[in-house]
Amino acid sequence: MTPIARWIAALLILPGAGTVASASSDGELAPSDRHQASAQIIVELLTNHHYRERDLDDELSSGALNAYLDALDPERFYFRASDVQDFQRYRHKLDDQLRQGELDAAWEIFRVYRERVQQRSDYARELLQSELDLEDDGSYPLEREDAAWATSGEAMNELWRERIQNDVLSLKLADNDGEQLPVDRLEERYAQLARNVAQYTADDVFEIYMNAWSRLFDPHTNYLSPRTRENFNINMSLSLQGIGAMLTIEGQYTKVTELVAGGPAAKDGELGTGDRIVAVGQGDEEMVSVVGWRLGDVVQLIRGPKGSVVRLEILSGDSGGRKMIDIKRNEIVLDDRAAQSRLLTLDHGARQQRIGVIELPSFYHDFSPDDGQNGRSTTTDVARLIEELRADEPLDGLVIDLRGNTGGSLQEAAKMTGLFIEDGPVVQVEYSSGQRNVLRDDDDGLLAYDGPLTVLVNGRSASASEIFAGAMQDYGRGLVLGDQTFGKGTVQDLVDLNRYQFAADDKAGSVKFTRAKYYRITGASTQKRGVKPDINMAELLQATGDISERHEDNALPWDKIDALDFERVGNPEHYVDTLADRYHQRVAERTTLAALRAERDLEQQLRERDRVPLAESKRRSEQADREDQRLEALNRRLRAMGRDPVNSASAIDADDLPDLVAREAARITADLSDLETGSTLTPVGGYETVRSD
Fold first, then answer.
1. For the chain, does the N or the C end have fewer beta carbons within 10 angstroms?
2. Tell me: the pLDDT tens digits for 336-369?
3. Which helix (H) or strand (E) holds 619?
4. Residue 61 CA from chain centroid, whole number
C-alpha cells in the first residue's frame, strides 16, 4: 500500500466519514462530512503529488483567502472593505483548518457574500425605478479586478449606480431601435442574479473554495464537482456539445476560452475567444440573462438538439461592445477537425512554385472500434495529404498551419514529427518524482517529405503544437513563422475521488492536477515561453490579448534540463535575415498586406480601451466611430484585392476572403525553397498567387 493509500485508509475510518449532509440542523447551507474528507484528500494530492512543491502553511493560507474572495467577487461589486477586514481573522488559519477538514470559514464567507448579493440586487431594482441620467459626464471602467473595496455604503451605491447606467446603455445601444430603456430586462437580470446565488448548493461552495486552493499550485490544477466533471470533458472530444465552445466562469460572466476546430461556433466566426456570454435564447424565444449563473446551468441552456438555433448576447472580448449572434447547433465530426490541404501555385518569373499548405486544427487519434489500432489519426492523414499534393508534380515547399491548434495527442505530435526526420528524440517529459521519459520517432526512418518546410503558429497554438514546432526548429528541419505560441508546457492527471470509496453516494468529484512538464530536445521548456518564431508575423495575425500562459497567475516557471543527443538535419536559420527582410518589404509594398496590418492595428487599439463613457450621446458617437473605422479598414482590404466595398461588415463572410497570412507564409516558403536550392530569388514584388486549389 502506497503512503497516500495508507493515509486515505486511515481517514476512511473516521466517524461519519461515509455520511452525506449539505445543511446544518437549522437548514442553513453547511459542508458535509463528504466535503470534509474530500478536502483532506485533495490537500494530500496537491502537497505531495503536484509538480510544484508547496507546503500547506500560512503563506498558502493567505493566498487561498485572497483567491477565494477573488473567485466570489472578482470585480469588487459585493464585499465591503469592512467585510474583507473582518475576514482577516482567517488569513493564517485556513491551512490548519483545512488540514483537519474544517470548512466553516469558507461557508461563513460565502454566507456574507450571498447576503451582499441580495442587498445589491434589491438596490439595483430599486434604482431602475428612478429616473436615470443618461448624459452623465463620468466614465465606467471595463476591468475592475484591481479596484479597491468600497469603504462605505455610499461608495457602494455610487459604484452600482455607474454599473446600472453602463448596463442600461449597453442594452439600449444593442437594440435595433435603441429607444426604449431596457428596465424590465435588467430588473429580471438582477433578480435572477440573487436567485442563482441563493440556489448554490454545498457542492458549489466546496468547488469554489477548493479551486481557490488548487489554482495556487498552477492554472491547470482544479477540483471538479460531479456536475462540473459531467459538463466539462477534458479529453480530446467536445467539452460543450451543440456549438463547440469551451467555457469557464470569470466573475459574474461565462467566458469563452476556446472554440473547437470544425465546430458550429468556429465555422460561424461570430463568437470569439475571450467573449463573455450575458444572455441565451432558444430560437425566437425571449432571451434569458445568464449573468451570475453557474457554469453548469449555462451549459444546459446552450445545449440543444442538432439543427436547432441558440441565440447568444455577448460582450466582445476584443472591443467590449455587445452584439447578438445566432448559431445552429450541430454535431462535430472528425472530418471537421481533421487535417485539410490546399495547393498554392505562385508565379515565379519563368516558372511557377507549387507550395502545399496543410491546416491542422488539432492532434487527434480516433481509435477503430474494431481493433483499437487502425483508426484515423493526424499522422496518417498528413502523410496521405502530402502524397496527394505531390502526386502530379513535386512540391517546391510545404507549410504546416498550426494556427489555433491547442494540442491534443502528444503521441501524434511525436509521430508526425517522424514524417519529416529520419529518427531521433522528439520531446522529454519530466514528472514530479524526477523521472524522465523521452518520446522518439520510431517509424524506421520513413519520410513523407524532405523538402523546404515552414510551420505557421499563433498565440493560440499550444501544447502538442508547440512540441511539433519546437522539434522542427531544434532539428533545423524547418522555420517557424507567425507569433509566439501559448506556452503550455505541462501535463495533467485526472484523479477520481470516488476511487477512494469514502462517499456512500459516489459523488466526490475529481481533481485535475499537473504532474509533469514538457521539455524540448535541447532541454528548454515550452512552459510560459512557448516557441518563438524565426520570422515574426504578429502584425498580420489577430491578437490574442492576455490569453496565454505568460499572463496566468501561478503559472509554473520556464526552466531548462539537460539536452538530449540528436543530430540536426539542416540550417534554415542561416536564411532568416534575408527572408525577414523580404517579408517586411512585401508588407510595406503590397496593398493587401498593408490593409490587413491596418486592421490588426485597429483591433489592438480597441482592445486597449479601459473605460467607456456613461453619457448616451458620447457612447453612441464612440460606437459609430468604431464601426466606421472597422468598415473602412475592411473596405481598404477589399479594394486592395480588387473587390467592391461594402456598406456593412456583416455583408462579408470571413470564409469568402482569402487567407492572406497563409499566402504570405507560402511566399516565405517559396523564398526558402529558392535559397536552399540555390535558385535565383524572384523580385520582392513577385510571387503572385496564380491559383489556389
1. N
2. 678 999 999 998 766 789 999 999 998 988 754 4
3. helix 616-640
4. 28
Separation in Å, CA 660 to CA 95, 170, 248, 295, 634: 54, 34, 32, 37, 13
Q: How far apart are CA 514 and CA 431, in angstroms?
A: 9
Kindly report, as residue ranges, where domains of CATH 3.90.226.10 are found in the chain.
Answer: 337-488+525-594+660-692
**d(Cα 312, Cα 287) in Å, to the nearest integer?**
8
How does DSSP assign 188-256, residue by residue? HHHHHHHHHHHT--HHHHHHHHHHHHHTTT-TT-EEE-HHHHHH---SSS-SSTBTTEEEEEETTEEEE
Q: Which is catalytic among the residues 218, 474, 483, 674?
A: 474
Could you confirm whether 488 is annotated as catalytic?
yes
Distance set, CA 115 to CA 118, 194, 396 (Å):
5, 9, 67
* CA 572 centroid distance within chain: 32
| DSSP code of residue 515 | E
pLDDT band at 286 (very low <50, low <70, confident <90, very high): confident
Pairing assessment for the beta strands 322-328 and 340-348 based on DSSP bridges: unpaired
Average pLDDT over residues 629-657: 85
Q: Which pLDDT tens digit goes with each residue over 68-91?
A: 999 999 999 999 999 999 999 999
pLDDT at 104 over 70: yes
* Dist CA 477 CA 691 (whole Å): 27
DSSP codes, 634-682: HHHHHHHTT----S-GGGS-GGGS--HHHHHHHHHHHHHHHHHHTPPPP
- The verdict on domain 337-488+525-594+660-692 having CATH code 3.90.226.10 is yes
Q: Which of 255, 415, 488, 517 is an active site residue?
A: 488
CATH of domain 239-328: 2.30.42.10
Please give the angle made by the CA atoms of 286, 255 and 159, to the nearest 5 degrees.
80
Q: pLDDT by residue (tens digit) across 366-412?
A: 754 444 455 689 999 999 999 999 998 999 999 999 999 988 889 99
User: Coil, helix or strand for 529?
Assistant: coil
CB 480 within 8 A of CB 531: yes
Q: Are 470 and 531 in contact (CB under 8 A)?
A: yes
Average pLDDT, the chain: 86
> How many CA atoms, within 13 angstroms, populate the side-chain half-sphere of residue 413?
29
Q: What's the CA gap between 450 and 476, in Å, rounded?
A: 12
CATH 2.30.42.10: which residues of the chain?
Answer: 239-328
Query: 397-401 and 351-359: which strand pairing?
Result: parallel
Using DSSP's 3-state secondary structure scheme, residue 471 falls into helix
Kindly indicate the confidence band of residue 238, based on its pLDDT and cuts at 50, 70 and 90: very low
Residue 652 φ/ψ, nearest 5 degrees: -115, 130
E-strand ranges in 451-575 read 453-457, 479-482, 490-496, 510-519, 535-536
pLDDT at 6 over 50: no
d(CA 33, CA 21): 7
Active-site residue, selected from the candidate residues 32, 170, 214, 463: 463
Cβ distance 454 to 344 under 8 Å?
A: no
Predicted pLDDT of residue 8: 37
* Amino acid letter, residue 274: G
In a 13 Å sphere around the CA of 175, the CA atoms on its Cβ side amount to 14
Gap between the Cα atoms of 101 and 502, Å rounded: 14
pLDDT for position 608: 81
CA atoms within 13 A on the CB side of 270: 21
465 class by beta-carbon count within 10 Å (0-12 exposed, 13-18 middle, 19+ buried): buried
Grid coordinates representing 39 are 478536502
Residue linked to cell 467590449: 320
In whole angstroms, give the CA distance from residue 507 to residue 19.
12
